[in-house]
Write a structure and sequence with these properties.
The chain is 0% helix and 43% strand. By secondary structure, the protein is mainly β. It starts with a strand and ends with a strand. Strands 3, 4, 8, 9, 13, 14, 15, 16, 17, 22, 23 and 24 form a 12-stranded antiparallel beta sheet that branches. The protein has a two-stranded antiparallel ribbon with strand order 1-2.
Length: 377
């Protein structure tokens, strides 16, 4: 057992050497290290923004002085981001991560081995930046608002409309920066993950080798650790299953020509549909006066799943020994199936619902071939 001098977290590791036993069961516990960059959350010289309601009195869609009450405690105040609304919590505890694992190995046949493992991971004392607003209690959200779900297209009166959803705005008595005190707080809700993996490995014999693995994970993850309004509790838990697999094989042909293939596959992008409800109700109901807008989760996390991500790669190489070294040639084909599955999606109801987003425009890079030559000595 040892204590880290910087993060003051206790870490221990127990386990066994697989050379002595086919079973191995290590356990670890470690603490999250608070980075120096977190001080920016309390630095009032850093960027801060305030949002107000704009009244376009003459309808020209141009801002003129007098169309917004810029008083931070005035009637047009909506929200503030930055140190002005953040307070430090002297009792904030370091999040802790605990991990336990066990595994088993067995020979299935000469040069073929099987391995299975299980990993349990748990995190406690989690928090979200900037934390809950301790100056505006849950009881302040006492204005009941009911809106119609416009469905995935974000337009009321179409075939995909849902039912009604009820959420809450807070009392105008709690309006203004005087009632904004975001404080980091440790959540009593732990995150837990169960992962199991199966692997079969063929060691290099008779010109070929390969391996195949498959793993699954059961999530119990809180999407947010910060709850301010009653609607923050809507579908706030991720209890999905994830999976992924990997297969690779290589074969040495005559004339020392090596060919190989690799296939990676995993579950598609997961998420949940949300709706942005704006200040004015199209049906003439109660406006969202203090919050201005409200983004509401409409379904459990994982209700939306994109297509699986399957990536197949090929490689061929040939090495030639030359005087004083070795000359090599190779060809690679990446994403041979030319899959364009998205690695992330947009889940907000509207014209861009389920559009790809993220790296490379949100889809896998296109098929590409690469020729290489190398010399080693």
């Amino acid at each position: 057992m040892r204590k880290h001098p910087r993060c003051k977290a206790i870490t221990w590791t127990t386990g066994c050497d697989r050379r002595d036993s086919p079973r191995c069961s290590p356990s670890r516990r470690y603490g999250y290290v608070f980075g120096a960059q977190q001080g920016i959350n309390y630095n009032r010289n850093a960027l801060q923004t305030a949002t107000f309601t704009w009244h376009d009195l003459n309808g020209d869609k141009l801002y003129q002085p007098g169309e917004v009450n810029l008083n931070l405690n005035g009637s047009d105040f909506v929200s503030v981001n930055g140190a002005i609304g953040n307070v430090m919590n002297p009792n904030l505890k370091q999040p802790l991560y605990s991990e336990s694992a066990t595994s088993y190995e067995h020979e299935l046949a000469p040069s073929v081995g099987f391995n299975t493992s299980y990993v349990y991971r748990r995190s406690t004392d989690n928090y979200n930046i900037p934390g809950p607003n301790v100056a505006r209690p849950l009881s302040a959200y006492n204005i009941r608002i009911t809106r119609r779900d416009p469905g995935a297209d974000g337009i009321l009166g179409t075939a995909d409309d849902g039912g009604s959803v009820t959420f809450f705005d807070y009392s105008p008595a709690y309006r203004g920066v005087a009632f904004v005190q975001n404080e980091l707080q440790n959540s009593p809700l732990p995150n837990q993950f169960h992962t199991v993996e199966f692997t079969v490995t063929k060691r290099p014999t008779r010109r070929w080798q390969g391996s195949a693995s498959f793993w699954m994970v059961k999530n119990h993850r809180w999407i947010t650790s910060t709850f301010n309004a009653p609607q923050d509790y809507f579908f706030a838990l991720d209890e999905t299953w994830g999976w992924a697999g990997n297969f690779e094989v290589s074969y040495r042909l005559p004339f020392d020509l090596l060919v190989a293939a690799n296939m990676q596959s995993k579950k598609g992008a997961m998420g949940q549909r949300t709706v942005l409800f704006r200040t004015v109700d199209p049906d003439g109901g109660t406006p969202i006066s203090q919050l201005s807008t409200a983004t509401i989760r409409m379904e459990p996390y994982g209700a939306e799943v994109g297509p699986p991500l399957n990536v197949l790669n090929f490689r061929g190489s040939k090495d030639i020994r030359v005087r004083g070294g070795k000359l090599g040639f190779g060809v690679d084909v990446f994403n041979a199936l030319n899959s364009n599955a998205p690695n992330a999606l947009l889940y907000a109801s509207g014209p861009t619902y389920l559009y790809p987003t993220g790296v490379n425009g949100g889809i896998l890079p296109a098929r590409i071939a690469r020729l290489t030559a190398r010399f080693s000595f």
